[in-house]
Amino acid sequence: MVARQQTPELISEVSDIEETRNERWKRHLSARAPLQWLARGWRDLWTNPVPSLLYGLAVFVASIVFIVYMFDTGRDYFLFPALAGFLIVGPLVAAGLYLKSRDLEAGARPTLRSMLAVQPMAGAQVFFTGMLLTMLMLLWMRAAVLVYALFFGVRPFPGLDHIAEMLFTTPTGWAMLVVGSLIGALFAGFAFAVSVFSIPMLLDRRVDALTAMGVSTALVWNNLAPMLAWGAIVLGLFLLSVATGLLGLIVVFPWLGHATWHAYKEMR
Q: Full-prediction pTM beyond 0.90?
């Protein structure tokens, strides 16, 4: 008696990448759409500009205080991972800027006090997303230390005065830069996908954190052209701010925050 062969139920046809896309989440925007978001964000920034600029100033001062603390406590090796981690938690920090843009749309006159007194429609759900982003930043900072240890062993961090020579003049340094950049890109890409629209959505609607993060990820994945362009713009403006000793954050941070609200409004 010949035993009948059965195909295991768990085996299924491998899906093509295009099959993971969903027409429901496609907005059919061009890669130039982020330029319109920037223009609208710039308009919001200079409409009653004092609250936005004070918001940016507060972010700048907090960043400088954090950096000084790292140097004073001998943790300067966290500087570069911390700068990259700022991009992970940035959407959460910008919550007050989203509120100003929303108030401007409603015809209200926002104040710094109203921007700081964030009252999300989703209630405490926004804090769950904030906890996830904070954990991602801390995990990335720890991963960066592990990557350094994998390539350079227990060798002490040489300090910022010598790190450039160690990284750019040795094969090991170049290898660490490549691997570290790839790992950092994975963290940044995931954080960008789950947060870019979820934080504005939690402020604007009564949804749970997981739903907001899932919708944000779906919108990013199904609109790659404009979202990749937006991500590149955010990174470019942030690097420009770093080149100015973070002073540029006073203008760049509120500008990007207002623009992100308009990106959410067009994508939702």
A: no
